[in-house]
Amino acid sequence: MTTTTSPSSAGPSGADTPALDVEDLCVDLTTPAGTVRAVDHVSFSVRRGRTLALLGESGCGKSMTALAVVGLLDPAAAVTGGAVRVKGGDTLRMSPAARRKLAGPALSIVFQDALTALNPVQPVGRQLGEPFRIHQRLSRRQAREKAVELMARVGIPEPGERARAYPHQFSGGMRQRLLIAMAVALAPDVLIADEPTTALDVTVQAQIMRLLRDLQDERDMAVVLITHDLAVVAQRADDVTVMYAGTVVENGSVHDVFSAPRHPYTRGLLDSVPEGSVRGRPLPAVPGSPPELSAVPPGCVFQARCPLARERCVRERPALRPTGDGRSAACHFSEELDRA
């Protein structure tokens, strides 16, 4: 299993050692209404060669978690607790210089909006060559050669010529390929892909996901895939961590979680897939909406939308606890889902 309730329990070395180990991560966000908890004791881990999906509705804390892991939080947000272990060290307790050395060779990220992530006033070849100049001290010419090789590898036609082009001269799919090329340039141990197929058509989405899988296989990377697309999770991920209102409500292997969810929110997401829907009838959906971060209830975060909610759920927040077979869920009545 990749996801556990205590990811730091893996041994100090060997195949079971996570490439990325996040434990009890907390992020607070400063707003005009006061400080709110955006990420609340989130834990997960992933080994090399495996794909872990962070799944949940928009606003549940997936991207905030990713930004905290790679150290790119907005100034209004701050990590207030937990650990992020990469290559045996806790990056949250490293100096800025030490963290910069890990950015690229050990840990990298692909953002969802390629047009804003790429520098609009620099040729893409120069941008792709920058990691080689910073980390490997290559000359400008050598870095450009590496950039052209990367562009060819991710399927950019005529890479030698296109290296002189600017981001706006590429299609959305090609820009996303460029972002992926930049992220994998230094063969990172861990690649975080934050909704890498947003705003792309279905055919291009499939191409991008296939490219990510091929690069993962070639370089034996651990991949954290952030998405709300259940089909992508089912097809591409090995393990899944389900998030709601900044917390982890369930984790386990994709096969186990999708075939027999142990949290009502996960069940609701799976039941919302419009497969077999009847024309003219409302599409299935989880009723209601996630709580505002400033109004997260003191008990179970999902209580207002949960068909199993009772008095205990109002009074007591359920802990993320093992449910068997390497899985865990944060529900007082998870065993009832097996009988539902």
Class per helix and strand makeup: alpha/beta
Query: How many angstroms does the end-to-end distance come to?
Result: 26 Å
SSE string, helices as H and strands as E:
EEEHEEHEHHHHHEHEHEEHHHEE
User: Mean pLDDT, nearest integer?
Assistant: 91
Total helices: the number is 12
Highest-level CATH class of the largest domain: Alpha Beta
Number of strands: 12
CATH level-four homologous superfamily name of the largest domain: P-loop containing nucleotide triphosphate hydrolases
Largest sheet: 8 strands, mixed
According to CATH, what is the topology of the largest domain? Rossmann fold
**What integer value in Å does the Rg equal?**
21 Å
Short description:
31% of the residues lie in helices and 23% in strands.
Give an overview in words:
The chain has helices at about 60-70, 95-100, 115, 125-135, 140-155, 160, 170-185, 200-220, 230-235, 255-260, 265-270, 310-315, and strands at about 20-30, 35-45, 50-55, 75-85, 90, 105-110, 190-195, 220-225, 240-245, 245-255, 320-325, 325-330. It is globular. A hairpin with a 2-residue loop joins strand 1 (about 20-30) and strand 2 (about 35-45). The chain is about 30% helix and about 25% strand. The chain has 2 domains: about 5-105 and about 190-275 and about 285-340, P-loop containing nucleotide triphosphate hydrolases (Rossmann fold, 3-Layer(aba) Sandwich), CATH 3.40.50; about 115-185, no CATH class. Helix 5 crosses helix 7 and helix 7 (about 170-185) packs parallel to helix 8 (about 200-220). It has an 8-stranded mixed sheet with strand order 6-7-8-3-9-10-12-11, with helices on both faces. Residues about 1-15 have low confidence and may be disordered.
